[in-house]
Amino acid sequence: MSFPPVDEQLAVLTRGAAQFDGSMREELKKKLEKSFTSGKPLRVKYGIDPTGFDVHLGHTVPLRKLRQFQEFGHTAVLIIGTATAAVGDPSGRDASRQGLTTEQIDKNAQTYLTQIAKVVDVSKAEVRPNGEWFSKFTFADMLKLLGHTTMQRMIERDDFTKRIKAGAAIYLHECLYPLMQGHDSVEIRADVELGGTEQLYNLMVGRDLQRAAGQEPQICLTMPILRGTDGEKKMGKSVGNYIGLNEPAKDMFGKTMRIPDALLKEWFELLTDRPEAEIASIVAGHPNEAKKMLASDIVTFYHGPGAAGETVADWNKQFSNSGAKQDPDNIDDVRIPADKIKDGAMLAVDLIAETKLTASKGEARRKIEEGAFNYGPDRTKPADVKATVPVADGLVVRLGRKILRVRLN
Protein backbone atom coordinates (compact mmCIF):
# COMPACT_ATOMS: atom_id res chain seq x y z
CA MET A 1 0.00 0.00 0.00
CA SER A 2 1.23 3.51 -0.81
CA PHE A 3 0.78 6.37 1.66
CA PRO A 4 1.05 10.16 1.29
CA PRO A 5 4.39 11.72 2.30
CA VAL A 6 5.08 11.49 6.05
CA ASP A 7 5.30 15.28 6.55
CA GLU A 8 1.91 15.71 4.89
CA GLN A 9 0.37 13.07 7.16
CA LEU A 10 2.03 14.49 10.25
CA ALA A 11 0.74 18.02 9.58
CA VAL A 12 -2.88 16.86 9.27
CA LEU A 13 -2.83 14.24 12.02
CA THR A 14 -1.31 16.52 14.66
CA ARG A 15 -3.55 19.51 13.92
CA GLY A 16 -5.60 20.32 16.98
CA ALA A 17 -3.89 17.66 19.09
CA ALA A 18 -3.31 18.44 22.77
CA GLN A 19 -0.49 17.28 25.09
CA PHE A 20 1.42 16.23 21.99
CA ASP A 21 4.96 17.38 21.38
CA GLY A 22 8.56 16.39 21.94
CA SER A 23 9.25 12.65 22.17
CA MET A 24 5.66 11.57 21.39
CA ARG A 25 5.66 13.55 18.15
CA GLU A 26 8.99 12.00 17.17
CA GLU A 27 7.65 8.53 17.96
CA LEU A 28 4.64 9.12 15.70
CA LYS A 29 6.91 10.38 12.93
CA LYS A 30 9.03 7.22 13.18
CA LYS A 31 5.95 5.00 13.09
CA LEU A 32 4.66 6.86 10.02
CA GLU A 33 8.06 6.53 8.33
CA LYS A 34 8.14 2.81 9.05
CA SER A 35 4.60 2.46 7.72
CA PHE A 36 5.48 4.48 4.60
CA THR A 37 8.56 2.33 3.90
CA SER A 38 6.95 -1.05 4.61
CA GLY A 39 3.54 -0.30 3.11
CA LYS A 40 1.94 -1.60 6.32
CA PRO A 41 -0.84 0.60 7.75
CA LEU A 42 -0.78 1.69 11.37
CA ARG A 43 -3.42 0.26 13.71
CA VAL A 44 -5.21 3.24 15.20
CA LYS A 45 -7.45 2.57 18.20
CA TYR A 46 -10.40 4.48 19.54
CA GLY A 47 -12.63 3.10 22.27
CA ILE A 48 -16.14 4.18 23.19
CA ASP A 49 -18.35 2.81 25.94
CA PRO A 50 -22.03 2.44 25.00
CA THR A 51 -23.28 4.36 28.04
CA GLY A 52 -26.34 5.87 26.33
CA PHE A 53 -28.27 6.00 23.09
CA ASP A 54 -26.70 9.14 21.64
CA VAL A 55 -23.28 9.65 20.14
CA HIS A 56 -22.77 13.43 20.25
CA LEU A 57 -20.46 16.05 18.73
CA GLY A 58 -18.07 15.72 21.65
CA HIS A 59 -17.41 12.10 20.65
CA THR A 60 -16.70 13.17 17.08
CA VAL A 61 -13.54 15.13 17.96
CA PRO A 62 -11.37 11.98 18.25
CA LEU A 63 -13.59 10.19 15.70
CA ARG A 64 -12.79 12.85 13.11
CA LYS A 65 -9.09 12.31 13.83
CA LEU A 66 -9.65 8.57 13.35
CA ARG A 67 -11.27 9.34 9.98
CA GLN A 68 -8.16 11.29 8.95
CA PHE A 69 -5.97 8.28 9.73
CA GLN A 70 -8.37 6.17 7.64
CA GLU A 71 -8.19 8.58 4.73
CA PHE A 72 -4.39 8.23 4.75
CA GLY A 73 -4.78 4.45 4.46
CA HIS A 74 -4.34 3.36 8.07
CA THR A 75 -6.54 0.84 9.90
CA ALA A 76 -9.20 2.18 12.25
CA VAL A 77 -9.83 -0.17 15.18
CA LEU A 78 -13.03 0.66 17.04
CA ILE A 79 -13.27 -0.80 20.51
CA ILE A 80 -16.88 -0.99 21.70
CA GLY A 81 -16.58 -1.10 25.48
CA THR A 82 -19.11 -3.80 26.28
CA ALA A 83 -16.94 -4.85 29.27
CA THR A 84 -15.56 -1.47 30.38
CA ALA A 85 -19.03 0.12 30.35
CA ALA A 86 -19.96 -2.19 33.23
CA VAL A 87 -17.13 -0.64 35.28
CA GLY A 88 -17.50 3.03 34.31
CA ASP A 89 -14.62 5.30 33.32
CA PRO A 90 -13.55 7.56 36.24
CA SER A 91 -11.68 9.94 33.88
CA GLY A 92 -12.75 13.54 34.36
CA ARG A 93 -15.26 12.56 37.05
CA ASP A 94 -15.53 14.00 40.55
CA ALA A 95 -17.76 11.12 41.64
CA SER A 96 -18.09 7.41 40.90
CA ARG A 97 -19.70 6.69 37.52
CA GLN A 98 -22.68 4.36 37.58
CA GLY A 99 -21.88 1.10 35.80
CA LEU A 100 -24.46 -0.34 33.40
CA THR A 101 -26.18 -3.70 33.29
CA THR A 102 -25.44 -6.17 30.50
CA GLU A 103 -28.91 -5.56 29.05
CA GLN A 104 -28.41 -1.77 28.95
CA ILE A 105 -24.97 -2.12 27.37
CA ASP A 106 -26.16 -4.49 24.64
CA LYS A 107 -29.13 -2.26 23.82
CA ASN A 108 -26.99 0.87 23.59
CA ALA A 109 -24.24 -0.83 21.58
CA GLN A 110 -26.71 -1.66 18.81
CA THR A 111 -27.22 2.04 18.02
CA TYR A 112 -23.62 3.22 18.41
CA LEU A 113 -22.11 1.82 15.22
CA THR A 114 -24.88 3.32 13.08
CA GLN A 115 -24.11 6.75 14.53
CA ILE A 116 -20.32 6.34 14.42
CA ALA A 117 -20.68 5.44 10.72
CA LYS A 118 -21.66 9.08 10.11
CA VAL A 119 -18.01 9.99 10.84
CA VAL A 120 -15.85 6.90 10.27
CA ASP A 121 -16.07 4.37 7.44
CA VAL A 122 -17.18 1.49 9.64
CA SER A 123 -17.24 -0.90 6.66
CA LYS A 124 -13.44 -0.57 6.43
CA ALA A 125 -12.82 -0.46 10.19
CA GLU A 126 -12.01 -3.31 12.54
CA VAL A 127 -14.78 -3.36 15.16
CA ARG A 128 -14.02 -5.23 18.38
CA PRO A 129 -16.21 -5.40 21.51
CA ASN A 130 -13.83 -5.76 24.44
CA GLY A 131 -16.16 -8.28 26.02
CA GLU A 132 -14.62 -10.57 23.39
CA TRP A 133 -11.55 -11.07 25.58
CA PHE A 134 -12.65 -9.96 29.03
CA SER A 135 -15.48 -12.52 29.07
CA LYS A 136 -12.75 -15.17 28.95
CA PHE A 137 -10.72 -13.67 31.79
CA THR A 138 -10.13 -15.92 34.79
CA PHE A 139 -9.47 -14.73 38.32
CA ALA A 140 -5.79 -15.47 37.72
CA ASP A 141 -5.84 -13.28 34.58
CA MET A 142 -7.35 -10.41 36.54
CA LEU A 143 -4.77 -10.75 39.33
CA LYS A 144 -2.00 -10.63 36.73
CA LEU A 145 -3.49 -7.49 35.19
CA LEU A 146 -3.83 -5.79 38.60
CA GLY A 147 -0.19 -6.60 39.30
CA HIS A 148 0.93 -4.16 36.59
CA THR A 149 0.28 -1.05 38.69
CA THR A 150 0.44 0.21 42.26
CA MET A 151 -2.08 1.99 44.43
CA GLN A 152 0.40 4.88 44.77
CA ARG A 153 0.44 5.43 41.02
CA MET A 154 -3.31 4.95 40.73
CA ILE A 155 -4.15 7.64 43.27
CA GLU A 156 -1.70 10.05 41.66
CA ARG A 157 -4.14 10.55 38.81
CA ASP A 158 -5.77 13.96 38.95
CA ASP A 159 -9.35 12.63 39.16
CA PHE A 160 -8.63 10.56 42.26
CA THR A 161 -6.44 13.22 43.91
CA LYS A 162 -9.33 15.70 43.71
CA ARG A 163 -11.73 13.19 45.22
CA ILE A 164 -9.36 12.40 48.08
CA LYS A 165 -9.04 16.11 48.89
CA ALA A 166 -12.83 16.49 48.71
CA GLY A 167 -13.43 13.42 50.86
CA ALA A 168 -15.36 11.74 48.02
CA ALA A 169 -15.36 7.95 47.67
CA ILE A 170 -13.08 6.05 45.29
CA TYR A 171 -14.28 2.51 44.68
CA LEU A 172 -11.82 -0.29 43.96
CA HIS A 173 -13.60 -1.37 40.78
CA GLU A 174 -12.84 2.07 39.30
CA CYS A 175 -9.13 1.26 39.51
CA LEU A 176 -9.76 -1.58 37.07
CA TYR A 177 -10.83 0.74 34.27
CA PRO A 178 -7.47 2.13 33.06
CA LEU A 179 -5.97 -1.36 33.22
CA MET A 180 -8.82 -2.78 31.16
CA GLN A 181 -8.55 0.01 28.59
CA GLY A 182 -4.79 -0.51 28.46
CA HIS A 183 -5.21 -4.25 27.98
CA ASP A 184 -7.43 -3.52 24.96
CA SER A 185 -4.34 -2.01 23.32
CA VAL A 186 -2.37 -5.19 24.00
CA GLU A 187 -5.12 -7.36 22.54
CA ILE A 188 -5.38 -5.43 19.27
CA ARG A 189 -1.66 -4.43 19.10
CA ALA A 190 -2.42 -0.71 18.76
CA ASP A 191 0.14 1.62 17.17
CA VAL A 192 -1.82 4.76 18.09
CA GLU A 193 -4.64 5.38 20.55
CA LEU A 194 -6.93 8.40 20.35
CA GLY A 195 -8.87 10.01 23.17
CA GLY A 196 -9.76 13.23 24.95
CA THR A 197 -7.26 14.99 27.21
CA GLU A 198 -8.93 13.48 30.28
CA GLN A 199 -8.00 10.05 28.88
CA LEU A 200 -4.22 10.58 28.91
CA TYR A 201 -3.65 8.50 32.07
CA ASN A 202 -5.58 5.55 30.61
CA LEU A 203 -3.70 5.79 27.31
CA MET A 204 -0.35 5.87 29.08
CA VAL A 205 -1.28 2.73 31.03
CA GLY A 206 -1.75 1.09 27.63
CA ARG A 207 1.86 1.95 26.76
CA ASP A 208 3.08 0.31 29.99
CA LEU A 209 1.08 -2.85 29.41
CA GLN A 210 2.29 -3.12 25.82
CA ARG A 211 5.93 -2.84 26.95
CA ALA A 212 5.28 -5.57 29.53
CA ALA A 213 3.81 -7.73 26.75
CA GLY A 214 6.87 -7.19 24.55
CA GLN A 215 5.07 -4.88 22.13
CA GLU A 216 6.16 -1.49 20.81
CA PRO A 217 4.23 1.08 22.88
CA GLN A 218 1.39 2.98 21.26
CA ILE A 219 1.36 6.70 20.52
CA CYS A 220 -1.02 8.58 22.82
CA LEU A 221 -2.73 11.23 20.70
CA THR A 222 -5.22 13.22 22.75
CA MET A 223 -7.68 15.84 21.55
CA PRO A 224 -9.11 18.83 23.46
CA ILE A 225 -12.39 18.34 25.27
CA LEU A 226 -15.30 19.95 23.41
CA ARG A 227 -17.30 22.26 25.63
CA GLY A 228 -21.05 21.85 25.31
CA THR A 229 -23.70 24.27 24.16
CA ASP A 230 -23.65 26.01 27.55
CA GLY A 231 -20.08 27.12 26.85
CA GLU A 232 -18.85 25.87 30.22
CA LYS A 233 -18.99 22.14 30.91
CA LYS A 234 -17.71 19.25 28.82
CA MET A 235 -20.36 18.21 26.28
CA GLY A 236 -22.23 15.30 27.79
CA LYS A 237 -25.51 13.48 27.97
CA SER A 238 -25.75 13.77 31.75
CA VAL A 239 -25.43 17.57 31.58
CA GLY A 240 -27.85 17.97 28.66
CA ASN A 241 -25.56 20.38 26.79
CA TYR A 242 -24.98 18.16 23.77
CA ILE A 243 -25.95 17.85 20.11
CA GLY A 244 -26.57 14.25 19.08
CA LEU A 245 -25.59 12.90 15.67
CA ASN A 246 -29.11 11.54 15.22
CA GLU A 247 -30.80 14.90 15.79
CA PRO A 248 -32.72 16.46 12.87
CA ALA A 249 -30.91 19.08 10.78
CA LYS A 250 -33.14 21.85 12.13
CA ASP A 251 -32.31 21.00 15.75
CA MET A 252 -28.58 20.71 15.02
CA PHE A 253 -28.62 24.10 13.33
CA GLY A 254 -30.73 25.81 16.00
CA LYS A 255 -28.66 24.52 18.90
CA THR A 256 -25.44 25.60 17.20
CA MET A 257 -26.85 29.09 16.63
CA ARG A 258 -27.45 29.39 20.38
CA ILE A 259 -23.89 28.63 21.53
CA PRO A 260 -21.94 31.46 23.25
CA ASP A 261 -19.73 33.50 20.92
CA ALA A 262 -16.66 32.37 22.89
CA LEU A 263 -17.11 28.81 21.56
CA LEU A 264 -16.85 29.72 17.88
CA LYS A 265 -13.10 29.26 17.39
CA GLU A 266 -13.04 26.04 19.42
CA TRP A 267 -15.96 24.48 17.54
CA PHE A 268 -14.65 25.49 14.12
CA GLU A 269 -11.24 23.98 14.89
CA LEU A 270 -12.55 20.74 16.39
CA LEU A 271 -15.68 20.11 14.30
CA THR A 272 -14.75 21.32 10.79
CA ASP A 273 -11.95 20.91 8.26
CA ARG A 274 -11.62 24.63 7.50
CA PRO A 275 -8.01 25.94 7.41
CA GLU A 276 -6.83 27.84 10.47
CA ALA A 277 -6.40 31.13 8.59
CA GLU A 278 -9.95 30.91 7.25
CA ILE A 279 -11.31 30.15 10.74
CA ALA A 280 -9.52 33.20 12.15
CA SER A 281 -11.06 35.39 9.45
CA ILE A 282 -14.58 34.03 10.02
CA VAL A 283 -14.41 34.36 13.81
CA ALA A 284 -13.14 37.95 13.47
CA GLY A 285 -16.37 38.87 11.66
CA HIS A 286 -19.95 39.15 12.92
CA PRO A 287 -20.67 36.34 15.44
CA ASN A 288 -24.14 35.62 14.05
CA GLU A 289 -22.81 35.11 10.51
CA ALA A 290 -19.96 33.00 11.87
CA LYS A 291 -22.47 30.80 13.70
CA LYS A 292 -24.49 30.35 10.51
CA MET A 293 -21.39 29.11 8.71
CA LEU A 294 -20.50 26.79 11.60
CA ALA A 295 -24.04 25.44 11.88
CA SER A 296 -24.18 24.94 8.12
CA ASP A 297 -20.85 23.05 8.17
CA ILE A 298 -22.11 20.74 10.92
CA VAL A 299 -25.46 20.06 9.23
CA THR A 300 -23.74 19.50 5.87
CA PHE A 301 -21.45 16.86 7.38
CA TYR A 302 -24.26 14.88 9.02
CA HIS A 303 -27.25 15.55 6.77
CA GLY A 304 -25.79 16.68 3.45
CA PRO A 305 -25.59 20.02 1.61
CA GLY A 306 -29.25 19.91 0.55
CA ALA A 307 -30.51 19.77 4.14
CA ALA A 308 -28.04 22.49 5.14
CA GLY A 309 -29.26 24.79 2.37
CA GLU A 310 -32.90 24.32 3.36
CA THR A 311 -32.13 24.89 7.04
CA VAL A 312 -30.18 28.08 6.37
CA ALA A 313 -32.99 29.39 4.14
CA ASP A 314 -35.60 28.64 6.82
CA TRP A 315 -33.45 30.32 9.48
CA ASN A 316 -32.95 33.45 7.39
CA LYS A 317 -36.64 33.56 6.62
CA GLN A 318 -37.56 33.31 10.28
CA PHE A 319 -34.89 35.48 11.88
CA SER A 320 -33.77 37.91 9.18
CA ASN A 321 -33.43 41.46 10.45
CA SER A 322 -34.58 42.88 7.13
CA GLY A 323 -38.29 43.07 6.48
CA ALA A 324 -41.06 41.18 8.27
CA LYS A 325 -40.20 37.93 9.93
CA GLN A 326 -41.63 34.84 8.26
CA ASP A 327 -42.28 31.34 9.47
CA PRO A 328 -40.09 28.55 8.10
CA ASP A 329 -41.52 26.29 5.40
CA ASN A 330 -41.33 23.22 7.65
CA ILE A 331 -43.09 23.56 10.99
CA ASP A 332 -43.54 20.69 13.42
CA ASP A 333 -47.11 19.71 14.28
CA VAL A 334 -48.37 19.40 17.84
CA ARG A 335 -51.66 17.60 18.50
CA ILE A 336 -54.31 18.83 20.92
CA PRO A 337 -57.56 16.98 21.67
CA ALA A 338 -60.49 18.93 20.22
CA ASP A 339 -62.40 18.61 23.49
CA LYS A 340 -59.82 20.89 25.12
CA ILE A 341 -61.22 23.75 23.01
CA LYS A 342 -64.27 25.54 24.47
CA ASP A 343 -66.31 27.75 22.13
CA GLY A 344 -63.45 27.77 19.66
CA ALA A 345 -60.96 29.21 22.13
CA MET A 346 -58.51 28.26 24.86
CA LEU A 347 -56.79 30.15 27.64
CA ALA A 348 -53.39 31.27 26.37
CA VAL A 349 -51.72 29.76 29.45
CA ASP A 350 -53.40 26.39 28.82
CA LEU A 351 -52.51 26.49 25.11
CA ILE A 352 -48.83 27.11 25.85
CA ALA A 353 -48.74 24.33 28.44
CA GLU A 354 -50.67 21.90 26.21
CA THR A 355 -48.29 22.43 23.28
CA LYS A 356 -45.35 22.07 25.71
CA LEU A 357 -43.80 25.35 24.61
CA THR A 358 -43.03 25.69 28.32
CA ALA A 359 -42.53 23.10 31.05
CA SER A 360 -45.25 24.51 33.32
CA LYS A 361 -48.18 26.92 33.48
CA GLY A 362 -46.16 29.14 35.79
CA GLU A 363 -43.51 29.53 33.13
CA ALA A 364 -46.26 30.09 30.53
CA ARG A 365 -47.62 33.01 32.56
CA ARG A 366 -44.14 34.54 32.79
CA LYS A 367 -43.63 34.23 29.03
CA ILE A 368 -46.97 35.93 28.33
CA GLU A 369 -46.05 38.79 30.67
CA GLU A 370 -42.67 39.09 28.90
CA GLY A 371 -44.42 39.28 25.51
CA ALA A 372 -42.51 36.21 24.30
CA PHE A 373 -45.58 34.30 23.07
CA ASN A 374 -47.59 35.08 19.92
CA TYR A 375 -49.91 33.24 17.54
CA GLY A 376 -51.49 33.37 14.09
CA PRO A 377 -50.45 35.14 10.88
CA ASP A 378 -50.50 38.55 12.56
CA ARG A 379 -48.28 37.34 15.46
CA THR A 380 -50.88 38.44 17.99
CA LYS A 381 -49.73 38.64 21.59
CA PRO A 382 -52.20 37.93 24.45
CA ALA A 383 -53.09 41.09 26.37
CA ASP A 384 -52.58 39.41 29.75
CA VAL A 385 -52.33 36.00 31.44
CA LYS A 386 -56.15 35.65 31.50
CA ALA A 387 -56.53 36.16 27.73
CA THR A 388 -57.98 33.48 25.46
CA VAL A 389 -56.72 32.44 22.03
CA PRO A 390 -59.03 31.44 19.16
CA VAL A 391 -57.84 27.95 18.22
CA ALA A 392 -58.48 26.33 14.86
CA ASP A 393 -56.73 23.44 13.12
CA GLY A 394 -53.47 24.74 11.64
CA LEU A 395 -52.96 27.62 14.08
CA VAL A 396 -49.26 28.54 14.33
CA VAL A 397 -47.99 29.33 17.83
CA ARG A 398 -44.58 30.81 18.66
CA LEU A 399 -42.48 31.22 21.76
CA GLY A 400 -39.01 32.59 21.20
CA ARG A 401 -37.46 30.41 18.52
CA LYS A 402 -39.95 27.59 19.04
CA ILE A 403 -42.64 27.40 16.36
CA LEU A 404 -45.41 24.78 16.23
CA ARG A 405 -48.55 24.18 14.19
CA VAL A 406 -51.61 23.06 16.17
CA ARG A 407 -53.46 20.02 14.89
CA LEU A 408 -56.77 19.10 16.52
CA ASN A 409 -57.50 15.43 17.17
TrEMBL record:
InterPro entries listed in its UniProt record: aa-tRNA-synth_Ic, Rossmann-like_a/b/a_fold, S4_RNA-bd_sf, Tyr-tRNA-ligase, Tyr-tRNA-ligase_bac-type
Among Pfam families, the record links this protein to: tRNA-synt_1b
UniProt KW keywords: Aminoacyl-tRNA synthetase, ATP-binding, Ligase, Nucleotide-binding, Protein biosynthesis
This entry's Gene Ontology molecular function terms read: tyrosine-tRNA ligase activity
Top-level class of the enzyme under EC nomenclature: ligase
Recorded catalytic reaction(s): these are: tRNA(Tyr) + L-tyrosine + ATP = L-tyrosyl-tRNA(Tyr) + AMP + diphosphate + H(+)
Keyword ATP-binding listed: yes
Which Enzyme Commission number(s) are listed?
A: 6.1.1.1
Family from the record: Belongs to the class-I aminoacyl-tRNA synthetase family.
Q: What is this protein called?
A: Tyrosine--tRNA ligase
This chain's source organism reads Gemmata algarum
